[in-house]
Amino acid sequence: MLRRTLLAAAAALAFTAGAALADDSKPAIVFDIGGKFDKSFNESMFNGAEKFKAETGVAYGEFEIANEAQREQAIRNFADQGYSPIIAAGFAQAAAVEKVAKEYPDLKFAIVDMVVDLPNVQSIVFKENEGSYLVGLLAGMASKSGKVGFVGGMDIPLIRKFGCGYAQGVKAAKPDATIFQNMTGDTGAAWNDPVKGGEITKGQMAQGADVVYAAAGATGLGVLQAAADGGALSIGVDANQNYLHPGKVLTSMLKRVDVAVYNVMKGGNANFKPGIQALGLAEDGVGYAMDDNNKPLITPEMLAAVEKAKADIIAGTIKVHDYTEDNACPVQ
Question: Which pTM value belongs to this model?
Fold first, then answer.
C-alpha cells in the first residue's frame, strides 16, 4: 500500500511538472544579437524561459545569434528537430520566422516585437510608448537642469516609439525641457556597442543633460556607466537595471518579455494562440521599476504623479502618441 501511495504521488508530481508539455510540445528560443546575458531584452526573455524550466522541470532548446545570417538557420534547425513552439527574440527575426513558419505549418512559432501574419505564429508587441511616458515623467521631475537625454540603439521606428513616449512624459513634467535624442547606428551592431553608448551619453551630458534614458540593448550598459561616472542619472530599459548602479539609475522602463516567453512556453502547442497580442500598462506588459536601489531617488510627489499618470493612461484620460502610427512625434 505504501509503495502504491508513493508511486501515485510521484506520478502526480511528474504530471504537474510536465503539464505544460502534455501535448508533446518541445519549446525553443532563439536569442538575437547581444546574447542572453545582455542584462536587457534578451536576458529578460531568458529569465522567462528559465522560470518555465524551473517550474516544470522541462528543458528547452536555445541558440544565441552571433550574426544576422544565423537567424533563419537557427529557427530552421529547431523546426527540423520538431521543436514547437519556437520563440524568436526581436523584430529582426521576422523574415526568418515567416519563411520557416510557412514551411512548417504544423509547428507553432512566436515572435516578440514584430507582427508575422500567419495562422501558426503568435506576434507579441508592446506599448513601449506608455511605459516610456512614465519614465519620461520621472526624468522631467528629477532633472535639475531642465535638459535630459535619450540614447537609442538601431534607428528604427520601434526605438523612435520609445523616444517619443519618453519625450511626451518629460514635457508633461517640464513643458520647457530640452530633450537630446541620439541613435547608436543603423545596423544590428547598434545593439551591442557600449563604448559608443557611453560616448553619446558623455556628449549629451556635456550639453547639460542630467538624466539619460537608454533604449539600446547591451549598448545601454555603456550609457548607464557613463551617466554614473559623470554624475548624471540614467534610466534602464526592458529588464530592471536599477541594481547595475544603485542610487544612480533613476528607474527602468520594464517591458515584460519575460512574461511573454513564459506564457508561450507554458501554454505549449495545446493552448497556443496565434495572432497579435499588444501589451501595455493595462495588461501589465510595461511599467517602471521601483526597488531599494532607486527608492531614495523617487520622492513621494514623483511617485504620486507617476501613479496618477499610469491610471490616467489606462483609463484613456491621457493618450500617449505612438510614433509607429505615423512616423512622427508631437513633441521634440
Answer: 0.86
Q: Each residue of 208-241: pLDDT tens digit? A: 999 999 999 999 999 999 999 999 999 999 999 9
Q: What is the 3-state secondary structure (H, E, C) of the chain?
A: CHHHHHHHHHHHHHHHHCHHHCCCCECEEEECCCCCCCCCHHHHHHHHHHHHHHHHCCCCEEEECCCCCHHHHHHHHHHHCCCECEEEECHHHHHHHHHHHHHCCCCCEEEECCCCCCCCEEEEEECHHHHHHHHHHHHHHHCCCCEEEEEEEECCHHHHHHHHHHHHHHHHHCCCCEEEEEEEECCHHHHCCHHHHHHHHHHHHHCCCCEEEEECHHHHHHHHHHHHHHCCEEEEEECCCHHHCCCCEEEEEEECHHHHHHHHHHHCCCCCCCEEEEECCCCCCEEECCCCCCHHHCCHHHHHHHHHHHHHHHHCCCCCCCHHHHCCCCCC
